[in-house]
Amino acid sequence: MIRRLLMSALIIAGLMTALLEGCGKDNGEEGLVKVRVGEVTRSLFYAPEYVAIAKDLFKEEGLQVELTTTFGGDKTMTALLTGGIDIALVGSETSIYVYQQGAEDTVINFAQLTQTDGTFLVSREAVDAFHWDQLQGSVFLGQRKGGMPQMAGEFTLKRHGIDPQKDLELIQNIEFANIPAAFASGTGDYVQLFEPQASIFEQEGKGQVVASFGVESGHLPYTVFMTKQSYIDANKETTQKFTNAIYKAQKWVEEHNAEEIADVVLPFFKDTDRAIAIKVIDRYKQQGSYASDPAVDEEEWNNLLDVMTTAGELTSRPAHEELVDNSFAEQAAD
Length: 334
Description:
Elements lengths: L1 H19 L12 E7 L7 H8 L2 H4 L2 E7 L3 H9 L5 E4 L1 H9 L6 E8 L4 E5 L15 E3 L6 H12 L9 E3 L7 H6 L5 E5 L2 H8 L3 E5 H5 L5 E6 H6 L1 H20 L2 H8 L8 H13 L11 H13 L9 H4 L3 H7 L1
Parallel strand pairs: 1-2, 1-3, 6-7, 6-8
Antiparallel strand pairs: 3-10, 4-10, 5-8, 5-9
């Protein structure tokens, strides 16, 4: 599904190229350079992004970030390819899908934000000592096929000797936003959930977190800021300043505790309880989900390719240097 939508986006992008060429940069308030960013979802998983905005780290670099939540990898990449946004915050797998479709304007990963999967395995029943073989014969409510959560989930299951197509009943046809409600209404013995829903279910007695797919699947470029090569070519200084701000935010998050981080980012989450936010952020910090710098290293990239290969989503293995530009991250860290 995601690849069909990306193919349509590539066609639209090609038709729009002539219209977009030659357009000048849109300056924001007070002479700041405006950068339109589309995030795949609104999540505490992306805490450093909100820190960069809330603490004016982008403004320090002369940028005005216009943040939009684009709700889904396919929609986010479509917005990027058709010029609706300048920079996308989304999983690196989407840049690979675009590459596999033969895009002339390659999508480049230039600043990593998270370095593990962000989902957790939640059991409906309380478990004293969890073992992965307890999933044998169970009903497992997973994520959408082709997305990183699903691929990281299946990769983990297979590492523990579980064939997700044969050893359990795998449900993948429920929309991302409806998965928590489906589990709460009685569907599934286990569910793969992002925070804060996993912690909320624990608080409400609806489930228990028994494992982390982030820990199990290892480091990979899970959520990365990316843009078209043409944008980088035309806006190298802006791309560098953007990366500088992200690196400053990453160091701030690394140096502060969950309570301090929560107080900075909570204005972006009006309906989230502070105690839940603190628990979520601490959980992500403890398992090393927030990247400490923006570089996408080759080992992480190859782990991503292994995960995608296991899921049957790769037609070839694009080399690290084809879709990753670490020059901005390296300069930011100097």
